């Protein structure tokens, strides 16, 4: 086991790597804890947290909504849960976003532990304190920023993670490498997804590296006024094609990363050989780098992006691999520059 403390706005978050969720009693007593998980995780792993009070929610993004939160809060009230109790979210980003939101609003904030169980959850969603639910078709429209007391990384959950969830999670890992860590990009080039899936030490080291990258960005800018925006690399075009083509999130981000690389070439002097290097890496990890999509519709969607400011949009570009910056760009100019590839 390895324990690392991170501090965000004076709150210390204890990250426990390589700890079995069976041992959660050492961090939050079973009598005092209420576990929130989804039905898939429950059916696969419930024996790991016997003896706890459990609230199961349906699996899937379509259940990341206020009525699920209301259902959980009613159960907490029935059990007379108070501020000394822990909410523990065990699951992918949907569960940890909901658990974080509930913990932040129930009695104006109770203790929170997170146990991410997907690659995306371990490297991204469980870190940084953002939480929330979707409203109508708008993702993460309502939520808070609320840091957990601890995050426990039990890598044994990954044994049951479906292949597509591995692939999607690696899009965010490659994103981190592009914006902050060329050495990690080189490491990924030297290995394959299958090697990471079959080697516990390799995957735990890689996850720790990504946790470190995300925490260092969030610690400098919890409220997303500056550097935290870099985490949106690949997500502007990514979200548009995700909505239009109903792609898995990671596949859409992968296409968005390549679009952002092309724009970086045009505007920032980013090397085309580095765009090719990143595209080859994404393909190596089974991620797509192009798509047949209605160009006009992509840019119509960009007009309603929350990063838009008048006729411009905040867009994350690369100067070189491992070095990114946000620029306010005219949307028509972005559209003209991406005509050849979208
Ligand atoms: N808060 C943040 O900073 C942040 C950052 C990125 C993404 N997110 C959010 O995260 C969500 C996506 O998270 P996700 O990709 O983890 O998806 P998810 O939570 O929907 O999980 C994907 C699927 O995998 C299943 N699953 C989870 N762990 C499993 C395991 N170990 N074995 C077998 N099945 C398992 C789930 O039941 C679900 O069906 C989105 O709602 C997104 O908005 C939040």
Please estimate the helix content: 40-55%
Order of helices and strands: EEEHEHEHEHEEEHHHHHHHHEEEH
Q: Average pLDDT across residues?
A: 95
* CATH uppermost class of the largest domain: Alpha Beta
Distance between the termini: 46 Å
Q: How many strands?
A: 12
Bound molecules: nicotinamide-adenine-dinucleotide
Cα-atom radius of gyration: 20 Å
General shape: globular
Please explain how this structure is put together.
With 342 residues, the protein is α/β, with parallel strands linked by helices. It folds into two domains: 2-161, Rossmann fold; 193-201 and 203-337, Dehydroquinate synthase-like - alpha domain (Dehydroquinate synthase-like, alpha domain, Up-down Bundle). 45% of the residues lie in helices and 20% in strands. The protein has 13 helices and twelve strands. The chain has helices at 39-45, 66-78, 93-105, 119-125, 163-180, 182-189, 193-198, 200-220, 235-245, 249-268, 272-284, 295-303, 331-337; strands at 2-8, 11-17, 33-38, 53-57, 86-91, 111-116, 133-135, 138-142, 150-153, 308-309, 312-320, 323-330. The strands form three sheets. A seven-stranded mixed β-sheet has the order 1-2-9-6-5-3-4. Helix 5 crosses helix 6 (182-189) and helix 10 (249-268) packs antiparallel against helix 11 (272-284). The protein is globular. The termini are far apart.
